[in-house]
Amino acid sequence: MREPLRLPSSGPPVPEPREGAGGEPEAFARREHSLRSLLELSHELTVALGVHETADLLLFNLMGQFRTPRAAAWLFPQEASAAQPTLVRSHGFHRALLDAIGSTCTSVLRKRFDQNTAPALSWTLRDAVGAAEFELIRHASIAVVAPLCAREELLGWVALGERLDGTPYEPEDLEVLEAALGMVAVSLQNVRLYNQAREMNRRLRASNEYLTELDRLKNEFLSNVNHELRTPLAVVIGSLECVVTSEREDAAVQNLLTASLDQAKKLGALIENLLNFADAQNARLSLECLPGDAAAVARDCYDVRFPGVAAGLRELVYRSAPTLPQARFDRARLLQILDELIDNAVKFTPSGSRIEIAVARATEDGREWVQIEVTDNGPGIAPEAVRSLFHSFEQIDGSATRRVGGLGMGLAFAQRLAVCMDARLTVASTLGKGTTFRLLLPGA
């Protein structure tokens, strides 16, 4: 076995190896370059990185290491039912070709990588895919497809383009590629587990808060019913009993009937109030609007929601203007509004979508505001549906809401909260391009 090369810490320099028949100096340089690239990749991988950042880090590292201008990464969403991978990042490739390849070659690639986790040169797939699919791969200039596997789980795969100098990928290159993807796959799996734990904690906290609020509303409801319903019913029952047993003149009976009618009207008004219970909630909301940093609250919401959004392979992005005025708001209620807007974006956008939270300064009607926008690039909302978007118990699309669930109260509640904070919540949407919810918070 050859001893590894050891560079001396002092003394005369090591002479450069002379060119031989096998091109040893060039091969040595390639191996050293690959080792350095792997070390850089391992140092930069961290659980703090998101899925999309990790994909970018991997692809740029591989593009530099193998001198190719094209690289792409597909990942399977964490949902167990997900059969198709999502193209999370691509550089240099034609997006339409990659989408076509992803939809037509998934079953073949999945079967190939379930049986063999080694990278596959594109020409070896000629007999596994149809002629049309292989022509797509060839036309896209894909040279290598390699799996991202961690602990016997196929997370996705990576495609690399042909090299700039036209040289083929050697067996040693494929070994280095397999090692790099193995490191990244473990890192991605750790990121998923970490984000999953954070999302579960968030859901537990939200459930606990919901149960606490539900218990408070239950007690308030029972207290109101006890006082407002039992008292008029007692008067009605007592009056009617008197009518049945009374032997007085008609005038006295008339008074009892009048009292019964008055109480019955009160009972009807109470029932009407119960039917409008959701609309009456805002009158009992307890808000404490104080000057504060709205961007910090939006950033906190982003940090809390990021793991859950990323689990569905949706990209959640946050950006903020460098300097912003203070705004007046209730912190807990502002978080509720942002939660509802992000929930809505997640419900109605597919995997691979982008959701952005942007905070900026705005001037409107001669007033200064802090503007928070939640934008997605999903299917959008039809103009006729936008008008009823903030109505209670209304859904813009019966088929869509049956698919994602919900009663249609989240956005209506968010707008009520905004009104209570003297804020404005509006929406703008274009079919096929996405939706933007705009929240204006009054300047302090």
SSE topology:
Blueprint: H1 24-44, H2 51-66, E1 71-75, E2 86-91, H3 95-115, E3 120-121, H4 131-139, E4 142-150, E5 153-161, H5 171-228, H6 230-245, H7 250-275, H8 277-280, E6 290-292, H9 294-311, E7 315-320, E8 327-329, H10 331-347, E9 354-364, E10 367-376, H11 383-386, H12 398-404, H13 410-420, E11 424-430, E12 434-442
Parallel strand pairs: 7-9
Antiparallel strand pairs: 1-2, 1-5, 3-4, 4-5, 6-8, 9-10, 10-12, 11-12
Outline of this structure?
The protein is an alpha+beta fold and 444 residues long. The protein contains 13 helices and twelve strands.
Commentary on this structure:
- The termini are far apart.
- By secondary structure, the chain is an alpha+beta fold.
- It is elongated, with a radius of gyration of 32 Å.
Side by side, the strands of the main sheet go 2-1-5-4-3
What average pLDDT do the residues reach?
81
User: Which band does the percent of strand residues land in?
Assistant: 15-25%
What radius of gyration results from the CA coordinates? 32 Å
Count of DSSP-assigned helices: 13
Q: Helicity level, as a percent range? A: 40-55%
The class by helix and strand makeup works out as: alpha+beta
Poorly predicted regions: 1-22, 275-280, 398-407
What is the overall silhouette? elongated
Distance between the termini: 74 Å
- By DSSP, the count of extended strands is 12
